[in-house]
Amino acid sequence: MLLLAVVAGMALSVQAAVNASLSSSLGVLKTAFLTFALGSLCTGLLIVFFQAPHAQTLLDVPKWQLMGAFLGVPYILIMAYSVKKIGAAVATVAVIFGQLSMSLLIDHFAWLGNAGVAFSSTRFLAMLCLLIALYCIYQSQWHSDQHN
């Protein structure tokens, strides 16, 4: 599963770079629309051909669980815009830092129906290392831009 998560992260970085390029031609909103429209079509086909039936429908689940569908919209919009401005590496590491920060809170407080995992010094160290990585990547890019 860890390897699959790494592959998913790689796919998100490629998606961010492609969407940034596409948004230069079509605009950020049309790019986001295209991403979700084609993604919906592909997912719909996967559901029709591969998804086993479930006892509950979208109308039966707690409504707060549907917010995940809306949280993808700001991500796509922000990445399509920001990658053009700050580059794929800085934008991606910034996103991962935001994900890690929120994930640590979700784990620690057992929010959103997840099992609790206590905040620890090693988790803090991981967050600090990622923050340092973000700073280093941003600084190296800034220095590179100054010399060009």
From TrEMBL:
One Pfam family it belongs to = DMT_YdcZ
Task: Tell me the domain of life.
Answer: Bacteria
Q: Which residues cross the membrane?
A: 32-52, 64-83, 89-112, 124-142
Q: Which GO terms describe its cellular component?
A: plasma membrane
| Alphabetized InterPro entries for the sequence | YdcZ (IPR006750)
Q: Which UniProt keywords apply?
A: Membrane, Signal, Transmembrane, Transmembrane helix
**Extent of the signal sequence:** 1-16
Q: What PANTHER family does the entry give?
A: INNER MEMBRANE PROTEIN YDCZ
Q: What protein is this chain from?
A: Transporter family-2 protein
